[in-house]
Request: fold
Amino acid sequence: MHHKSIFIITLVFFIGACAPLEIPATVTQIPFYASDTPAPIIVPVTDTPAPIIVTVTDTPAPIIIPVTDTPIAPKTETWWDVYFTEPLTINNPDAIAGSIEDKLIQLINSAQTSIHIASFEFDLTPVAEALIEAKNRGVDVKWVTDDKNGLESDIKPGRGQFALLTAAGIAVQDDAGRSALMHNKFWIFDDQTVWTGSTNITASGIFKQNNNVLVIRSSEIAYIYEREFQELWSKQFGPRAPSTVNNQWAILEGTPIQILFSAEDHVVSNLIALVNDAQVNIRFLAFSFTDYPLAKAMIDRSASGVDVKGIYETFGSTSTGSEMKTFWCANVPVRQDGNPSFLHDKIIIIDNRIVVTGSLNYSSNADDSNEENVVILDNPGIAALYLQEFEKLWNQAHDLEAGTVTCQ
Reply:
């Protein structure tokens, strides 16, 4: 089978009726790989020792879209939206029309039953006011945040938004004084829609930094995130939290989607497996990239002929732990971002079709200790938008100045 095509095998089986949440447990799993040497097909994984693969023959075969070097034109689907911050043009917190903040408030205003939030930090009063209005019309609003960067920072100048929420009767919890971070940035609306990506709900995150948001309208994906939210709400944090990775997938209109949570799902090792199967190209945008095994996997693919490029956030790129030097000295093209604030994305795009996004920086702390989420999906239309953003930021970025790193 040709590695440039991903063949989807549909697994058909029934799930028991006992679900921990009051939403239908209709989700099972197809991961993007089954081992450290990924097969060029999507292999089902179940909780049974020997997975049973049932091939569907009564339905038409799935349409296989070949990988090309030219991204396929973006979307005709209706189940997703992708947003990017525009710090060069949309950079005034007092004029939010058309901004990511505006998009978020629209979702809040349309919520009917519940808004469950796991988000790292917060300083946007219009968002707080929209949440309070939602609470007042009967919507169940809950927020899990970080301790130090969330609730403890609420007394700082310009903050106080969490105090507004709690005064209105909205429940807000932190991550129980852990040294690791509750670093997620996901929202669940009405058990139907998920908002995720790299964007903190702050003036800096939306109006100064480079960030992305992925919105998925799917009760199956919302169920996966709601289950994780309930773990956080019940204070199950870190690597000992239960992993439900075998049930963290869905196929939406032909697009396979897998959700991973750190620390329990060992996200970086899964990303290495994806990278190892890259055949055409790899692009990455990284606020922090200090994980050597992931860097080495990309470098190895480059040595095998895969076209690899990456953009590092400038200020952290020359830190002791940064792998930018590793890429540079291996002659893999990397640049430092051109944003005078900073690039905050955490994105990998593989073979013009697989997109990895979410809150996880490519570091041991993020993988082993923090609370993070990652979305992996296979959709050329979505990938085309992320590639377009990469090219825009690549053109704004700059090569390393002479003497920035010394190769030995």
Summary: Residues 1-30, 33-65 have pLDDT under 50 and may be disordered. The chain has two domains: 80-217, 247-396. The domain at 247-396 is CATH 3.30.870.10 (Endonuclease; Chain A).
